[in-house]
Amino acid sequence: MPPRNHVAESVRALLAEEQVAPGDRLPPERELAARLGVSRSSLREGLRRLADLGIIESRQGSGTYLAPLDLGDLFEVRLRLEPLAARLAAQRRGEEDLARLADALAEMRGVLGDPQLFGEADVRAHAAIVEASGSLPVRVLFAAIADLLRHSRATTAGNDDLRAGAVSEVAAIVEAIRDGDGDAAEAAMRDHLAHVGASLSAA
Amino acid sequence: MPPRNHVAESVRALLAEEQVAPGDRLPPERELAARLGVSRSSLREGLRRLADLGIIESRQGSGTYLAPLDLGDLFEVRLRLEPLAARLAAQRRGEEDLARLADALAEMRGVLGDPQLFGEADVRAHAAIVEASGSLPVRVLFAAIADLLRHSRATTAGNDDLRAGAVSEVAAIVEAIRDGDGDAAEAAMRDHLAHVGASLSAA
DNA sequence: GGACCATAATGGTCTGACCAATCTGGAGCA
DNA sequence: TGCTCCAGATTGGTCAGACCATTATGGTCC
């Protein structure tokens, strides 16, 4: 259980549950803290994190507001950063990275029939690639946007054909990383993201 | 004066001043708070921000440590994200964005002889491009790495020829953005970053 | 109907305390 | 001498309550 994200994620869950729309005002800090059962100081550290991610915006005397977020913009960023992550992973991966990648890929194959579990395995595979990149900025930036990607992953995981396609695409990425072929890894990741992007546009 | 970054930047300044090396332990929170003249709660919100950026890492009972950071990795991320920012800026820029860009470019020309001022103007120009992109994720990610870029900018700004070159390169970017030509803007930004990268490698 | 102001609401900060995990150094023993 | 083990100190994590600064609200007065 990651302690750092705990409050931030609880707040995100609460917002989703109450259907707070972008631009809406959040409940006051004092009330949020009480509802989540934490002190206001701890809540504020969580809110600070969300504010740094651009998810919320606080205005003294007025309130805290949910910022608008364009999933298309988010995907464009992914489209630029994940191929880099794949390239670096191919150049720097260690034995432990390869093992993690193999595990994640095997799990994707194993839970192909379950959209929910498949989505989680997919997340782990992408996380393993980012981790293998060995780049601190890449890891940090992905951590920042990771929890914003839940929607798009849900879209992908919900379609049977997409899941099957994703497995072979991810397999190609993993293979290129294992071979240490940066160009191929980057290309394979672009290919994968192109398919994901197409399905997102259709949805 | 941006209140949000205040503590985080003060801490960064202090670390630079005391030559805290990556992996070193920072002074205890209570001492840092006293030295910066803020309460421990405010200090912690600042530290939380640095921790989210991957700059520091806290271990309960042990201390807070400065994480290692590879400037080369950072530049690779920049190399991927800034061209995207330039492209989006060309597609979405408003009149206000164009005015800011023109101002920043004019200022770069005006302070060409002063490395310090030039560096600041350069930062403003890049910030204006990011702002004009209109993409929340892009803005957020750049805010996250902005203060990590000081070193590389110092390198660029310290060389007379590089400054002159940077002006014409940035001018080309601004022109492409004004024309609404995303392809040209992205290419011009790549060109600019290639020059910056070459100077970094040399240094 | 509109301008103005007292009041409430809300985020920003501070102080001081206690808890939990970790580190450190000395006591005791083999 | 060298090792183990444990108690205390150190340090980050959290909490509670208070006050300040800014903004929103609603009523009053013209």
Describe the SSE topology.
Two copies of one chain form a homodimer.
Chain A: H1 3-17, H2 29-36, H3 40-52, E1 56-59, E2 63-66, H4 71-92, H5 95-110, H6 115-133, H7 136-146, H8 150-157, H9 160-179, H10 182-202
Antiparallel strand pairs in A: 1-2
Helix pairs in contact in A: 1-3, 2-3, 4-6, 4-9, 4-10, 5-6, 5-9, 6-8, 6-9, 9-10
Chain A binds a DNA duplex (30 and 30 nucleotides) through helix 3.
Task: Please explain how this structure is put together.
Two copies of one chain form a homodimer. Chain A is mainly α. Chain A folds into two domains: 3-66, Orthogonal Bundle (Arc Repressor Mutant, subunit A); 71-202, Four Helix Bundle (Hemerythrin (Met), subunit A), CATH 1.20.120.530. Helices cover 75% and strands 4% of the residues of chain A. Chain A is built from ten helices and two strands, in the order αααββααααααα. Chain A has helices at 3-17, 29-36, 40-52, 71-92, 95-110, 115-133, 136-146, 150-157, 160-179, 182-202, and strands at residues 56-59, 63-66. In chain A, strands 1-2 form a two-stranded antiparallel ribbon. In chain A, strand 1 and strand 2 (63-66) form a beta hairpin. In chain A, helix 2 crosses helix 3 (40-52), helix 4 (71-92) packs across helix 6 (115-133) and helix 6 packs across helix 8. Chain A is elongated and about 55 Å long. The two termini of chain A are 33 Å apart. The mean pLDDT of chain A is 87. At the A-B interface, helix 3, helix 4 and helix 7 of A face helix 3, helix 4 and helix 7 of B. Chain A binds a DNA duplex (30 and 30 nucleotides) through residues 3, 28-30, 38-42, 44-45, 58-64. Chains A, B: Pfam families: FCD, GntR. Chains A, B: GO terms for molecular function: DNA binding; DNA-binding transcription factor activity. Chains A, B: Keywords: DNA-binding, Pyruvate, Transcription, Transcription regulation. Chains A, B: This is GntR family transcriptional repressor for pyruvate dehydrogenase complex. Chains A, B: It comes from Conexibacter arvalis.
